[in-house]
Amino acid sequence: MPIQIQENIQLANYTTLKTGGVARYFVTVTNQADLTEAVAFARSQKLPLLFLGGGSNMLIDDTGYNGVVVWCAIKGREYTEYEDGRVTLVCGAGEMLDEVVAESVAKGYWGLENLSAIPGTVGATPVQNVGAYGVEVAQLIAHVEVCNVVTGEVDVLNNDECEFAYRESFFKKENGKNYFITAVHFDLQKNLTPKIGYADLRDKFGDTTPRVEEVRQAIIAIRAAKFPDWTVLGTAGSFFKNPVVRRFEADALRLKYPELPQYEAGEGMVKISLGYVLDKICGLRGYKKGNVGLYEAQALVLVNYGGATTDEIKKFATHISDLVYVKTKIIISPEVRFIKNK
């Protein structure tokens, strides 16, 4: 069945920040054949491609996208259990992440529970190396199924080939941007493997050993207390990355701010809690300018309170970055991807 090519679709309806202009063309793909046809159409029109999943980590230009937006709706979940307790999950890129987490937890599988209540699709998780509460998908992904939209070749990349780093991956690099993710393979566990080192989880469970569904419910409660409802307010969750600095810079910050949380990042680098910096050092929790602000319960979360434009959000984010640098000399960068019009 031929794909349906829509025209002049409002992209604000497809992003959790609720901004973005009109797409010249918009195509929904549910399988490899749809994707091949969508790519062929873009080539015939000599137009660029933009891949869109749940729209939870994108800030799209107010003028829209003068190209072909390909929205991934590839579904499917397949679990395989092994005698040693391992479980593999092959999941279509268009599946909603939290629905997959809920199902895996209901089956009693460990691995994804700390990623509960995160908006977006499964296909976006390897791109951003999505993580929360001590877990990154880099720890769970075995393979990623992809299609190179330039050559048309279908491939399966292993974990090393994905080049995961903190909120980074091969897919955000120039060569990786040509790859459309169609499925993700996760390694899960039937055996008890709770990861509750995060402070709020330690406070919740203490010395007890929680069941996997208890960890999920705790994560949902923590996020509900700290994050706005993304179905009501425009948000991408954590808008900025936690900065990673050199050891001597971290030591200098600790001398000045002894309570500043720091985490080893390897190779002489240290990850700094930006939430603490924004809240306790800069006093920016709840700070608002126009239609944009930092959420009153979690300073790391940028919110579109209604009516904000992409340009307004970008200017606000730059303003926050400047305030942080003046106060701490730390350079911060967005976790959200800025999509320019073509």
TrEMBL record:
Instruction: Name the coenzymes or cofactors required.
Output: FAD
Listed pathway(s): Cell wall biogenesis; peptidoglycan biosynthesis
> Boundaries of each FAD-binding PCMH-type domain copy?
18-191
Indicate where this protein is primarily found: cytoplasm
Q: Where does the record place the catalytic residues?
A: R167, S238, E335
State where the protein is found: Cytoplasm
Family to which this protein belongs:
Belongs to the MurB family.
Molecular function terms from GO: FAD binding; UDP-N-acetylmuramate dehydrogenase activity
Q: What class of enzyme is it?
A: oxidoreductase
Annotated protein name in UniProt: UDP-N-acetylenolpyruvoylglucosamine reductase
GO BP terms: namely: cell division; cell wall organization; peptidoglycan biosynthetic process; regulation of cell shape
**Species per Swiss-Prot/TrEMBL record:** Candidatus Kaiserbacteria bacterium RIFCSPLOWO2_12_FULL_45_26
- Gene symbol of the encoding locus: murB
Q: What does this protein do?
A: Cell wall formation.
Reaction catalysed?
A: UDP-N-acetyl-alpha-D-muramate + NADP(+) = UDP-N-acetyl-3-O-(1-carboxyvinyl)-alpha-D-glucosamine + NADPH + H(+)
Q: Which UniProt keywords apply?
A: Cell cycle, Cell division, Cell shape, Cell wall biogenesis/degradation, Cytoplasm, FAD, Flavoprotein, NADP, Oxidoreductase, Peptidoglycan synthesis
For this record, the Gene Ontology CC terms, alphabetical, are:
cytosol
Q: What is its EC number?
A: 1.3.1.98
